[in-house]
Amino acid sequence: MNVLFVCTGNTCRSPLAEALLRRLLSERRVEGITVGSAGTGAWAGAPASEGSYLVALEDGVDLSAHRARPLTPDLAASVDLILTMSRSHRQRVSDLGYGDRAYLLGEYAGRTGAAAEVNDPYGGSLTDYRDTYTQLKSLLDAVVQRLERERIP
Q1: Which of 81, 2, 93 is nearest to 39 (CA)?
Q2: Across residues 9-32, what is the average pLDDT?
């Protein structure tokens, strides 16, 4: 199974989600799932934002090798599950013709309403980035549990 996280610039939320899910899958010894990320308005090759880099590093996650990539129809077609940070990102995936593969990350993790969207820390303080990181960790724990339950062996 191939999972893709989508945010706007692919420098804050989606790289954090990608790295966190990889770590969770490794810790739980879940195999057969690849993880990537992209942005609806990404500048190809941009590094992770400084805030995301720093809060990830505080938790032992290294984003130094991350490079942003734009969401394209070919990329969307190549994955099985697309988890978006906001409803507007999910709409963009639908506009590309792959809405049947796309879920709002929070909804996939069992949240509803405003709690289903992941806060965008871009341009905010380090505290804002930490809050987003904590939100992602909580959501991704639920995502891993769901993937383990629903995955066909």
Answers
A1: 93
A2: 97
CB-based contact 103:84 (threshold 8 Å): yes
List the domains of the chain with CATH numbers.
34-150 (3.40.50.2300)
Residue type, 103: Y
pTM of the model: 0.97
Q: Which residues are catalytic?
A: 7, 13, 120
Q: What is the DSSP string of the chain?
A: -EEEEEESSSSSHHHHHHHHHHHHHHHTT--S-EEEEEETT--TTPPPPHHHHHHHHHTT---TT----B--HHHHHT-SEEEESSHHHHHHHHHTT-GGGEEEHHHHTT--GGGGSPP--TTS-HHHHHHHHHHHHHHHHHHHHHHHHH---
25-82 pLDDT tens trace:
999 999 999 999 999 999 999 999 999 999 999 999 999 999 999 999 999 999 999 9
Provide φ and ψ at 125, rounded to 5°.
-80, 170
Q: What is the pLDDT of residue 37?
A: 98
